[in-house]
Specification:
The complex is a heterodimer of chains A (about 325) and B (about 350).
Chain A lengths: L1 H4 L2 H12 L5 H45 L14 H32 L4 H14 L3 H13 L7 H4 L4 H25 L3 H9 L4 H30 L2 H5 L26 H11 L6 H34 L1
Helix pairs in contact in A: 3-13, 4-8, 4-10, 4-12, 5-8, 6-8, 8-10, 9-10, 10-13, 12-13
Chain B lengths: L2 H5 L2 H35 L8 E7 L4 H14 L3 E5 L4 H9 L5 E4 L5 H9 L5 E16 L7 E3 H8 L9 H4 L9 E5 L4 H18 L10 E3 L2 H10 L3 E6 H4 L5 E3 L1 E3 L4 E2 L3 H5 L6 E9 H6 L1 H10 L3 H8 L7 H12 L6
Parallel strand pairs in B: 1-2, 1-3, 5-10, 6-7, 6-8
Antiparallel strand pairs in B: 3-12, 4-8, 4-9, 4-12, 10-11
The chains are: A mainly alpha (about 325), B alpha/beta (about 350).
Chain lengths: ~325, ~350
């Protein structure tokens, strides 16, 4: 029946259009463009990593342990040259950020997402938090300078010892606070409404609902966001310069876990990298030292990110 | 539902474990931290009574390496003195110094009157000014280049300043110079030598000419002085500039005389130390004498600074040491605490 309705010519055309391989030129072109975007990104990263790794071998290849134990020195050939003071600063900045920014940030996010009424004020606050996340980090450095060093408000400088790892950590905690609030907020928003309604359905109060349903469900997302923001804090240099991180020489070299030195003058890995890069104009051996410091910072951040992934997987498994 | 007890614990557990980690680590290290000073004490017990305390230094990033090197050498003499050195710049250094935040201020120029008044207004009146080194920059060409002996600031500005952009021979850049290819080598912007060169040679002439105080951009900058020297050696008609202490021992290069307005002067340790050679500047430290009266560590450190260690530290970090007489004067100024007024 059908064959009679369609003549031979159009039948051939239909057959061809079905059987012949169609060449989707535009589609292919689009795919190639996308692939080259990825390639450019990867190539840039590879060049960066390879050059840094090659440069760093002078220090890391020959005197890894000494480099990890050593201090800021005036000459790159000094046998006590090393990164220990920078590692101390960065480690404790990370810890202070975790202790301060995470509970406060997550708490604020819980309030904004679960308690705050949906009105203009809340919307206004949320917009402002988003804007704060985009404020240049130097501005937070200025805030830290006024608040923690000059003690213009509350005389907080007496608590932090002025220019210290404690001041640096608090400044960076304030810096990542908006990011923590935003990422945790996103995680809370991803919690299915059915979970909340189910909890209410069996008679849970709001607090019980948040505690038993929302927080556990959102935990992986919160963790990823917060730990990534910690990595951001550890990589910041500009605010620390304003808070008085030392570039030249630090008298003390406290043990990694010596919390007694938290209110002394400090330095941090990004500061050491900047300082050594500048000094490579005077003493070329500092190029290798700066590269080695970059490798140490990368490993530091990588460790943090893998911790985030591990923890997230753990929580996700539990949730499943 | 069995899981829920475990699940709901996660937040407090994380917070608690973080504070535990902090506490545990702190406890750990109380003992560790107390051992090194004790060991150090034992080391110096045989000598005079060990000095201990803190010295806080800030200021010029040009002088910073000298103060650090002196502190490193001082470590062997007085391991219990903790010297912290920072280098935000001469002006910022004086600001901190006049607020009483630092004991010593490094400076690549002398203190300005407003800065001095600021200090005095804050009750910091006893200030000792000490010259510690000279920063000289050598202008060089290939050793085989007999056509050029001396360059004036104007010629240097024409050759290296922004107006030279695009010129490929000496004559094209500055009339009167030989008609030979110009191969230019110098430090990059990140270098202190670059800054000093701009300040001393380029800045005033650039202002006159109404252009930015910088160099031309079409030359090969390098952070490595060796690369600059290799460039100079590679071309018969090359031109370049590096720190004097580095250039003076190099082979295959000729250090040019420079005319800063008072005739041609060849760069030597003496002409630089005496500031006769025009591309040179003095480097200073300013000591708070009041603070020194209360802080034996500061006195010991400056005593050491103006001793024989100074010329060693200065040459090790690439500057020109003071002449014997100038060094003696510096030491004398410190020991007699001659204050600036």
């Amino acid at each position: 029946m059908v064959s009679r309705l369609v003549d031979d010519r159009s039948r051939a055309a239909i057959a061809a259009s079905i059987e012949r391989r169609r060449v989707d030129t535009r589609g292919l072109l689009f795919k190639v463009v996308l692939q080259s975007c990825l390639l450019v990104t990867l190539a840039l990263l590879a060049v960066l990593l390879v050059t840094v790794a090659l440069d760093s071998t002078d220090q890391l290849g020959t005197r890894l342990w000494d480099f990890l134990q050593g201090t800021l020195r005036s000459r790159s050939s000094d046998e006590s040259l090393g990164i220990h003071q920078g590692m101390y600063g960065s480690l404790w900045i990370a810890v202070i950020v975790a202790v301060l920014a995470f509970p406060i940030g997550i708490g604020a996010a819980v309030y904004l997402e679960e308690y705050a009424p949906r009105n203009r004020l809340t919307a206004f606050i949320e917009v402002n938090i988003r804007n704060l996340a985009g404020v240049p980090s130097v501005v937070y450095g200025l805030l830290g300078l006024a608040l923690l060093l000059n003690g213009q408000i509350f005389g907080l400088d007496r608590l932090t010892g002025g220019s210290s790892a404690l001041s640096g950590g608090i400044t960076l905690a304030i810096l990542v606070l908006p990011i923590v609030i935003i990422t945790s907020g996103e995680a809370f928003r991803a919690v299915p409404m059915e979970l909340r309604e189910g909890a209410y359905g069996v008679g849970a109060t709001r607090w019980e609902m948040i505690r038993t349903q929302v927080l556990p469900y959102a935990a992986p997302g919160i963790l990823t966001g917060t730990l990534l923001s910690m990595a951001r804090a550890v990589g910041e240099a500009a605010p620390l310069i304003l808070v008085g991180a030392v570039t030249g020489r630090l008298g003390e070299n406290p043990g990694l876990f010596d919390i007694g030195a938290l209110d002394d003058r400090f330095t941090a890995l990004p500061i050491v990298i900047t300082s050594w890069t500048v000094q490579s104009g005077r003493d070329d051996g500092f190029t290798a030292a700066a590269a080695a410091a970059i490798v140490v910072l990368l490993v530091f951040v990588l460790m943090m990110n893998s911790a985030a992934i591990l923890l997230r997987n753990r929580f996700e498994k539990k949730r499943g | 539902m069995r899981n829920s007890t475990r699940r709901r614990l996660w937040l407090p557990v994380i917070v608690a474990s973080l504070s535990l980690v902090a506490a545990a680590c702190g406890g750990d290290d109380e003992d560790e931290a107390s051992t090194p000073p004790a060991a150090a004490d034992a080391g110096t017990a045989g000598e005079t009574a060990p000095v201990s305390g803190e010295v806080n230094i800030s200021g010029s990033s040009t002088v910073e390496p000298i103060s650090i090197r002196v502190a490193e050498l001082f470590e062997d003499v007085a391991p219990d003195v903790s010297v912290t050195v920072d280098g935000p710049g001469t002006g910022d250094g004086f600001k901190l110094f006049c607020e009483g935040e630092t004991d010593i201020s490094d400076a690549s120029r002398q203190i300005k009157d407003p800065e001095k008044e600021d200090c005095f207004a804050n009750g910091i009146t006893d200030i000792v000014e000490l010259k510690v080194a000279v920063d000289g920059i050598a202008v060089m060409t290939n050793a085989g280049n007999g056509a050029v002996e001396c360059l004036t600031f104007h010629q240097l500005f024409d050759l290296i300043g922004p107006n030279g952009e695009g010129t490929s021979t000496w004559a094209e850049a500055s009339a009167g110079l030989p008609d030979a290819p110009l191969d230019l080598f110098g430090p990059g912007e990140e270098s202190g030598t670059f800054d000093s060169f701009i300040e001393i040679v380029i800045e005033d002439l650039a202002e006159e000419a109404g252009v930015d105080a910088t160099t031309r951009t079409d030359y090969s900058p390098s952070g490595d002085d060796n690369v600059i020297l290799q460039g100079i050696q590679s071309s018969d008609t090359s031109l370049g500039w590096v720190g004097f202490a580095f250039a003076v021992n190099a082979s295959g290069v000729k250090l040019l005389e420079v005319d800063g307005g008072d005739g041609c002067v060849a760069p030597t340790g003496d002409t630089i130390a005496s500031n006769e050679y025009p591309i040179s500047r003095d480097l200073w430290i300013y000591v708070n004498a009041d603070a020194a009266a209360a802080n034996p560590a500061l006195v010991a450190y400056v005593d050491f600074y103006v001793s024989d260690a100074l010329s060693r530290a200065v040459s090790e970090v690439g500057y020109v040491p003071l002449t014997g007489a100038a060094q003696a004067e510096t030491a004398d100024r410190w020991h007699s605490r001659s204050l600036i007024s």
